[in-house]
Specification:
Largest sheet: 2 strands, antiparallel
Shape: elongated
CATH class: Mainly Alpha
Radius of gyration: 18 Å
CATH topology: Bromodomain-like
Strand order of the largest sheet: 1-2
Structural class: mainly alpha
Order of helices and strands: HHHHHHEEH
Number of helices: 7
CATH architecture: Up-down Bundle
Number of domains: 1
Helix content: 55-70%
Amino acid sequence: MVDINKTLTIKLTFIISILALAAAFFIEHALGHQPCNLCILERIPYLMAIIIIVLNYKYIHLEKYFILLLILIFLAATILSLYHLGIEQGFIEESLVCDLKKGSDLVTKEDILKQLQEKNISCKDVTFKIMGLSLTSYNILISLLITISSARIYLNYDKN
């Protein structure tokens, strides 16, 4: 049963990661909702999960370490999303991560003027909600579930 749960969890994590990234890009590019810097950072764990799971099928003898890596990645993703939710709710002030501009190494005055004309999205502004919850809230739930299910598999890995 552990093997079925392990296989199912890995496959679900792979599918969820693809769907999460596809949804993020759809919301950004098709619906026109610009992400803040933290929203963009919250995509990285899903991309990393896809790469790790593909590597897992190639190097199956390292599976236990790949599962541990997934745990650490999605634990960090949960913490990052909680931090972002704290900013959205006003419990935490925006940090430098929220203020970083794309191309922060602006040199010419034309670059600076162009940057000032662009609309910068604040990390506390929620531009897209599903059933009243921000995408950050859903990211917390998804990341936490993947962390817990991966940890359960990791802890029971040698019992099989």
